Amino acid sequence: MSDTTRRSPVRKLILPAIATAIVFAILCSLGMWQVRRLHWKEALIAQVDRRLKETPIAAPGPGQWKTLDLAEADYTPVTVSGEFLHDDEAHLYSSLMEPRGPVGGVGWFVFTPLRTDEGWIVYVNRGFVPVEKEIASTRPEGLTTGRVTVTGLMRRPETPGRFQASAKPTSQQWFARQPDKFAARSGLPVESVAPYTIDADATPNPGGLPQGGETTVTFSNNHLQYVVTWFGLALALVGVFIAYARGVLKRRD
């Protein structure tokens, strides 16, 4: 038997070995990426847990907006005083399955612009209302008048998902918190509206609605299972290649 004939089965392993090495490297890189994401998510959760225990600070005004890191400031406890503009409510669709208060299910979060003592405006998520209480006139007791002080959590704006429903052009029904678009729809001066919103705390509103204090501060953290998945696939790939290589070498013998 010639050397070429003896080597031919081994040569059959060259391309599969290269392909296996490439895919193995890709799977491992995905696994390492998920490890980094896991560390980032754990740090974020710890940061938010610490932040929720901090003393509220004054809500940032226009002089701070340009330099404000909205992602970093998310969930910061703040306080602000002013007067609600109830005629310009915006309603954010929600399915509140685990409410802290007595009202839950399908409904809306009520975002009401607050004209602050300084004159600028910030949208306040006053809380949740059921579907039948979306319109402000159905809950007149909760339409607080005069100067109020709101304490809550600063929240960054959201970008609607690709497959998310769009806001209705003739209403104030929304599916992502977008204070600039809320303001534009109501005809408020966008340049005077804060780039963030505030989720009001659980201080009861007259009549019980809107139901505040319903901010979700839990984070999904599935990165560990993704780490196991990607590295598990990498190991499985190696096992498949080893089994294949053994079969090729046995046929050579």
Folded structure, characterized:
It is a single chain. This protein is an alpha/beta fold and 253 residues long. The chain has 2 domains: 3-45 and 221-252; 56-208, no CATH class. It is 37% helix and 23% strand. The longest helix has 38 residues, at 14-51. The protein starts with a helix and ends with a helix. The model has no long low-confidence stretch (mean pLDDT 89).
Give the structure's gist in a few sentences.
The chain has helices at residues 3-11, 14-51, 62-65, 70-73, 179-186, 223-252, and strands at residues 57-58, 77-84, 90-96, 105-116, 121-130, 147-155, 173-174, 193-200. It is α/β, with parallel strands linked by helices and 253 residues long.
